[in-house]
Amino acid sequence: MQPGSTSRFAGALRGRWRRSLFFRVVTTTLALSLLVVIVLGQVLVGRISNGLLDAKERSSLLEARAGLTQAQGLVAASDQTDTAAATRLIDQVAFQLANRGGGTPRLYDVLLLSSSVGVPQRGTNLVSEASVPVDLRTAVVAGDRQAWTYTEIVYTDGRLPVPGLAVGAPLTVRGLGTYELYYVFPLGQEQATLDLVRRTLVFAGLVLVLLLGLIAWFVTRQVVDPVRYAASIAEQFSAGRLSERMTVSGEDDLARLATSFNHMAASLQRQIGQLEELSRVQRRFVSDVSHELRTPLTTVRMAADVLHDARVDFDPATSRSAELLQTQLDRFESLLTDLLEISRFDAGAAVLDPQATDLRGVVTRVVEMAAPLSERRQTTVRMDLPSDECIADVDVRRIERVLRNLVDNAVEHSEGRPVDVCVRCGDGAVAVSVRDHGVGLRPGESSLVFNRFWRADPARARTTGGTGLGLAIALEDASLHGGWLQAWGQPGDGANFRLTLPCRLQDELVSSPLPLEPADADQTRRLPVAVGGPAPRWEADADEGAPDA
Amino acid sequence: MSLMKGRVLVVDDDTALSEMLGIVLRGEGFEAVLCADGESALGLFRESRPDLILLDLMLPGKDGIEVCREIRAESGVPIVMLTAKGDTVDVVLGLESGADDYVVKPFKPKELVARVRARMRRNDDIPPETLQIGDLSVDVAGHVVRRGETTIGLTPLEFDLLVALARKPWQVFSREVLLEQVWGYRHAADTRLVNVHVQRLRSKIELDPEHPEIVVTVRGVGYRAGSA
């Protein structure tokens, strides 16, 4: 496997581990039960082998002691004097002892060894003297007593060595010096038993682990399935299907989860219903107020107009009164219109009527309509339009209102210097910026301008005809399109308002084709907080909430 | 009142406003017939045969939308809605039920009179002229649209819209230009007027209104006559 695919596999596993409770529980159960089975198996095998060897040891020692007694009896009974007779004695001892061990398979083998040189040594059944460890021989010779140890039995004919127990004791033979008598007990049978036990344990352990895994799988399924079901219901609920409920079965904890979930859903549905009802009532109220106010206002308006048209026939005071009535009705009317528009936004009743529109046309129209005002203010409005069309899905009525507001504002505050309107298109967005070179905005004011009834200088009398709601409405209109409306300004260097709209309504805006801070901004006078920031909608929303607080 | 310019039926439940409308209209030389509720509007319309109707959308009893539908069912007389609500839904609903134009309260008398005049200026001395648009032939002076031998009934406004497009089949008309030529708005107004009436016109003249071939949409610009 290549390192890349390995790490990919590990990554997939890690992801699975993070996401799936199911996977986690089953894996943990498997790992832990494997650990428990291994430990248990070790303990069991240890105990069983100890028990087996203990018994073998005891019987072996008894056997060896009995053999030694017999050998000592034989040696004591003989009265040989020469070496040949002694050698015969040794042979006899070896033969008799070996015969005690029974037929094949023999229970043990016998070795008669001596550390002296030139004396005969005997071993039965081709057992090599290498089967007796040097340590044991030293212990027997030096300690002059019976000693034993576990060893590996080696045969002189090349058979495979087998584990065994060697028991040794010194045996003095007159004429030949001190011999060592070794009993060597092969442990093949015990080994076989242990192997069988071990194999059985491993098999049983594996089966147990697998079964535990299966059990964990079943148990987890029982818990995870209802949880997954609850999750899918909750997702559907949050996707707006408010009447979605879980089916409750039984009386267990999962049934309680389902019941509480259903209670929560019902309560949410009720509250959402109440809010919707409230909003509906509010909308209805706005609509009613609108109708009730407008009809008498229309009558007053027409009456005032008739009076105004006939004012030449009146005396000066009445004539002037008719004029004042007329102009103030204008103001009253636009204030009412703006208030109703704002309350429509607040009630969430503002509806978008989008159509694909070339923004250059809208801008041209707005600038043409601003001509009388700019003439009065003795300024000019310069347009910078791209040669390619700038089409976006917009509600023309709203966008025209936004742009009219921006251009009129800029002309009002231009102080006779030209106003620049610039349109750009790109990256799925269309932007229009309106730049004036008037008195500008003080630091921090660039977000305040969108507040309702906000005035740059409260002490200064309102000379322009604005209602104080224009920019607030413009901001709402932009937000309704999923667009941005932002302001930039510097004291003495004018202000720049930038409207950015997504070409397709559902699209999220990420950037604007135009900079918020104009290229011709006076860098030397730049103040650190003068920039209105690349405020996306959330900042705009924060502005909007301020006046209500 | 020798210079009678035409008869206007005013349907509005607010008596003060109705009276004021009457004063203004008479001052401009129109004859005004007042009606205060939706129920009697249709009867009064049949009786007085007005040249134009000013219709309030919110009426007690039968509402303005319903009245508009009933009148439209039997006549193409120009209907101008008086609405207190600038809401899209209300305006579109009114236009779709057959109104030609609308004014939002509070309106200025001059604005209203301009709307009334624009809808009433009609075939005074139109030279005989026959236009071809798609597979339709349009007799401008006779005010008749035919597909083959079949005559298609259009309201005067729909007829004007079709004639405007048919006169210059090579030109793409923006909604603003159409508003000026057909409705008589000199400044930009509500382009929904155009959208709704193009839909109404298409439903009458197109073989398949879903895939229009006579009045074609030019995305981002407006409409033009089909090239067929």
Task: Write structural notes for this entry.
- The complex is a heterodimer of chains A (549) and B (228).
- With 549 residues, chain A is an alpha+beta fold.
- Chain A contains 13 helices and twelve strands.
- Chain A has helices spanning 3-19, 21-77, 83-100, 134-143, 188-238, 253-309, 316-346, 359-369, 371-376, 396-412, 445-448, 470-480, 537-545; strands at residues 109-114, 122-123, 147-153, 162-173, 177-186, 355-358, 381-384, 391-394, 419-426, 429-436, 484-490, 494-502.
- In chain A, the strands form three sheets. A five-stranded antiparallel beta sheet of chain A has the order 2-1-5-4-3, sandwiched between helices.
- In chain A, α5 packs parallel to α6.
- The radius of gyration of chain A is 53 Å and the shape is rod-shaped.
- Chain B is α/β, with parallel strands linked by helices and 228 residues long.
- Helix content of chain B is 39%, strand content 21%.
- In chain B, α4 links the parallel β4 (79-83) and β5 (101-104).
- Classes of the chains: A alpha+beta (549), B alpha/beta (228).
- The A-B interface holds A 287, 290-291, 294-303, 305-306, 333, 344, 349, 351, 353, 355-358, 361, 365, 369, 389, 391, 396-397, 400 and B 14, 16-17, 20-21, 23-24, 27, 58, 84-85, 87-89, 104-110, 174, 176, 187-188, 190-192, 195, 219-221.
Relevant terms:
heterodimer; A: 549 residues; alpha+beta; 13 helices; 12 strands; disordered C terminus; B: 228 residues; alpha/beta; five-stranded parallel beta sheet; four-stranded antiparallel beta sheet; 8 helices; 39% helix
Structural class of chain A: alpha+beta
- Across the major sheet of chain B, the strand order is 2-1-3-4-5
What is the radius of gyration of chain B? 18 Å
| Chain-averaged pLDDT of chain B | 85
* Beta content of chain B: 15-25%
Q: What is the straight-line distance between the termini of chain A?
A: 65 Å
Query: What is the percent of helical residues of chain A?
Result: 40-55%
**Mean pLDDT rating of chain A:** 83
Largest interface: A-B, 32 and 32 residues
Classification by helices and strands of chain B: alpha/beta
Strand content of chain A: 5-15%
Strand order of the largest sheet of chain A: 2-1-5-4-3
